[in-house]
Amino acid sequence: MAASKLQALWNHPAGPKTIHFWAPTFKWGISIANIADFAKPPEKLSYPQQIAVTATGVIWSRYSTVITPKNWNLFSVNVAMAGTGIYQLSRKIKHDYFPEGEHPFTFCLQSLHLPPPKLPAAVAAASERVRSVRRLECTNSVEKASNVVSETEGSKSWVKRKRLAVFVSGGGSNFRSINQACIEGFVNGDVVVLVTNKHACGGAQYASDKGIPVILFPKTKDEPGGLSSDDLVKVLREFEVDFVLLAGYLKLIPLELIRAYPRSIFNIHPSLLPAFGGKGHYGMKVHKAVIASGARYSGPTIHFVDEQYDTGRILAQKVVPVLANDTAEELAARVLREEHKLYVEVTAALCEDRIVWREDGVPLIRSKENPEEYY
Question: Locate the Formyl transferase N-terminal domain: which residues (predicted)?
Answer without folding.
Answer: 162-347
